[in-house]
Design a protein that fits this description.
By secondary structure, the chain is mostly helical. The protein is built from four helices and no strands.
């Protein structure tokens, strides 16, 4: 289970961080696209969910052997790399040919 939660945490964590950054800018609630999105990722229930997941990853790592910890670390790192690439793609307005 540790590998699974370690792989899923980066997505949840980055959405929390990006939602929080956008919310801190102010005026996001009135934006016709991003208002609801920011709201969804900055509500206390979502913040608590991410905390629960972080704690679950930490507890899983504490009870894991060396091999499991290394796998958790690899999965977390790869997932975080994909999250970075996703957000960078959006920021740079990368175009994909999809036909």
């Amino acid at each position: 289970m540790g590998e699974n939660v370690a792989a899923l945490l980066p997505c949840m964590w980055t959405y929390l961080d990006v939602g929080g950054i956008l919310a801190d800018i102010g005026g996001y609630k009135s934006h016709f696209i991003y208002g609801a999105w920011c709201e969804a990722y900055t509500v206390p229930d979502y913040i608590d969910l991410v905390k629960v997941y972080r704690n679950l990853v930490n507890r899983s790592a504490e009870g894991a052997g060396k091999t499991e910890k290394n796998r958790m670390r690899r999965h977390f790192s790869l997932s975080m790399r994909y999250e970075y690439m996703f957000w960078n793609m959006a920021y740079s307005m990368e175009k994909w040919i999809i036909y």
